[in-house]
Structure formats: structure tokens, C-alpha cells
Amino acid sequence: MKLDQTLRKFVDPLPIPKTLKPKYKDDQKTYYEVRMTECYQKLHRDLRPTRLWGYEGRFPGPTIEAEKNELVQIKWINELPKKHFLPIDHTLHGGEHAPEVRTVVHIHGAKTPPESDGYPEAWFSYRFQETGPTFQHEIYEYPNKQEAATLWYHDHAIGITRLNVYAGLAGFYLIHDYTEKCLNLPSGKYDIPLLIQDRSFNRDGSLFYPEQPTPATRDTPNPSVVPFFAGDFILANGKIWPYLEVEPRKYRFRLLNGSNSRNYTFTLDDEESFYQLGTDSGLLEKPVKLNQITLAPAERADIIIDFSAHAGKKIILRNSSPPVNENTELVMQFTVSLPLSDKKDHSLPKRLARKSLAIDQPVKGLRYMTLDTEQDQYGRPLFLLSNKSWSDPVSDHPRLGDAEIWSFLNVMNFPHPIHIHLVDFLVLDRRPFDVERFKETGTIFFTGPASSPFIYERGRKDTVLATPGEITRIKAVFEPYHGRYVWHCHILEHEDYDMMRPFDVLK
Ligand code: C2O
Ligand code: CU
Ligand code: CU
User: Fold this and answer.
1) Ligand 2 center to residue 466 CA distance, Å?
2) SUPFAM superfamilies from the xrefs (predicted)?
3) What residue owns the CA closest to ligand 1's atom 1?
């Protein structure tokens, strides 16, 4: 039975994930081990413990922190049960022959050599199948040759990413660098990652995830993937509507939308403003003052909230992105109740980081990618990229070091967050076009002027909302590695079926 009544808001303190300790470290490399296990956690004061899957048995997983250029090795170990506890659709890729429980870890936003990037078909046991492993693991290597940024790690197994991430397999991966250190930004306990997700529950406190779309027909497979999932409860760092006690000073928050499908438009009470320091892949050139920000699944924003004028007050972080109701409209509460512990000046730096080098590089390739929809043999919507499915041959081969412009033509009436592995990119613009004419003739006829990227996406990005009826253009430089990568819609229900494509970076 689905839990339909609501739960008391702001009764649990916000959990802050612990930083993972290395098993071994010298000046060559840092070595970690991360076990994926089943665990039970209380997600709300009035809810019984919920069965979850977590990295190191925690949801969210421990935060992994690395320095720019630090060589990090992680042994990812799958110690999960043999059966999944969420509804597996056996008609999807990987559903037919693969083991039901399969995992592969991807660090979202990291520039990682292809063999360590978490290719969806490289789920564990794949390589060791012949010898029949008793436990399954993979050692991945992360050179971290990139600027300070808020990244995250999550599961990426073919056909079940939506279920593995929903079960709890997600955590933060932060890269620090010298530039960031010199900025005197709030740090330590004043630098807080916020993983925002939505979940639904059964009355016994277990996770609810739909078995089938509504309405389903006689032909709909059971279980079946659904075209969209919006949970009834909003969680921050694994607690439902938590609160955080803060001092009257500046805090840095690393906002991450880790939901399967939901967008969030964040605001503070009274339209209170805040400052953005960074986008998905790193710091901006200078801070930007905002009073709202929209994050699609997988997008991040590094922000500063200044509580110094609010001692004694309570400030709610809100969401206004549809579908939204009086519950999902609330995210968490800041309680400005702690005494100020130091009197240091925490003024905001005027300049943050260098501009992305990609801006000026000459463009060597243009690609047009359509975002399409069809019906599958069961009458369900099937979402595609460039009218191709995952298993079609590779059709995109950018050259190592080349700058390219990719244009995403969204012919649907729904926005899709498109993510490209390996690169960070700049959002160039969005421009409306005649969708009907394009469908009939294949030619692009613009119906209005191009608009600049939103004020909060004018920095390095790895995920961009491709808006309906528009062409969204991005510019990326394909480096520093060559080999097989993927790009996909980050609505996990779409990524699994079937908005994901491989691409090859050629040497
Ligand atoms: Cu956040 Cu391909 O993933
Ligand atoms: Cu990624
Ligand atoms: Cu999508």
C-alpha cells in the first residue's frame, strides 16, 4: 500500500555525508575501496527504516574528495543481493540475459579514461564471467586532470540505472584545486553538499516505485518501465524535508538534482537572493546574483547563501517546478539559530576562475541530434536520440582535441536534460523552430530569434536542458582521452529506454 498521507516537515536534521578515507595513500596515488551493500536507514522520524542500496552501506554514499591531478584508484565492490527489490523490466536492453543485479559506477562530470568511465555494458562480472567470481568488483582509475568542481558518482548499469539510483546508489565526488583554495570561500562545516531527490513510499516505509505506467493496457509488460517518475516526498541527503541549523553567516552549498525525472526550481523564502559560484563542471568567472535557479536531473549549482541578516529566523528552500503540490513545493528548512563562531570577513570574491578555454577554439564539426519519440510494440512511448537506439552502431566520431557544436533538436513537447560524458561544454543558445515542417521535410525553419543561455548556465556544463520545440546548441572540446563514451538523456527512465547513444572519440 502506497503511503499517501504526508509526513511532518523539518523534524529531522540534515545528514551530512562523511568524507571517505583512503585505504592507502602515497605521493603516487590514493586508493579507496567502496562496497555496495543493502542497508536499512530511517529516512524520516515517523517512518520505519527503509531498505536501500548504498555505497559503503550509506545513502547517500560517502563523499569522495580529490585534488586536481591527484591519481585516485577506487575498487568498486558489488556485495549486493542476487535479487533486485525494485521492479525490473525484462524487455529492456540487458534485461534478457544479464543477471538481474548488475552495477557499474560512473563519476558524473569526471574526465575519465574510457575503461574507467563506467560504460553501461561494463557492469561487474562482465570481464570475469569465464572464471566465475564469487564477489564482483572493478578497479577504476581517475586522473582528476580538471578544475575544482562538484561531481557525483552513481550507478550506470544498462537497463536498470533508474532502479539502482532510486535504490540509493549515489554520492558526491568533489574536486578541489589551488585556484579555489585562494578564494577564501566558506569551507569545512560551512561547505555543504545537498543531494536533492524525490521518493515515494509504501506504508511500511519501503520504497515505492511504479510497476507499470498508468494507464497500462493488456499489452503492457509487467513490470514495465515508466515514461516519467515524480515522487511524493522530497529528500535532502537522504532525509525527507530535513532542517539545518546554521550560523548567521555565509555558507556554500553544492546543490545537486539527483532525482530520476523531476526538475527543481529552487527559491528561498521572500525571494531572498543568493549567489552562484559554479555550474556543473566548475567555478564561474565571477559570482552571479540570483533569486531562483532551475536544475534538471544531474545538474549542479555551487551557491552561497548569506544568513548574516537572518539571525533567529527560519528560511525554507522551496521548489516550484511542475509537477508540484503543497508538499513537493518544500525542500528543506534553514534555522538560523547557532551563534556566530568567528568574526572573520567572508566577503565574496569578485573573480573566481579563468574562463573555459573551449570558448575560443575554432569549430571543427557540427552535429545535429534529434530527440524523438515513437511507440514500441507494446504501445508504450519509446524515446530515442537521432532516431537510433542504444544497440545501433556508433554514428558519432569526434576527433580527439576537436571543438564541435552539437545541436539538440527537441521535437517533443517535453524538455530533456542531455548529458555528454568526458567533456564539459558551453551552452551557446536556444532557438525555436518549426517542428511540423522539420518532421515532414527534414529542414530547419526557425520561427524566432535565438535566446542566450539562462543566467545560471553561463559556465562549464555537462548537462543541458534541451527545451521543447527548440534547438539547443552546445560547444565542447573532445579531450583529454579517446575511446568509447556515451551521451544520453539524464531522465533515468529515458536513459534506460532508450535515450542513450555511444560515441567514439578518435585519436
Ligand atoms: Cu550522470 Cu551517464 O551519467
Ligand atoms: Cu556522466
Ligand atoms: Cu529524456
Assistant:
1) 16
2) Cupredoxins
3) 108
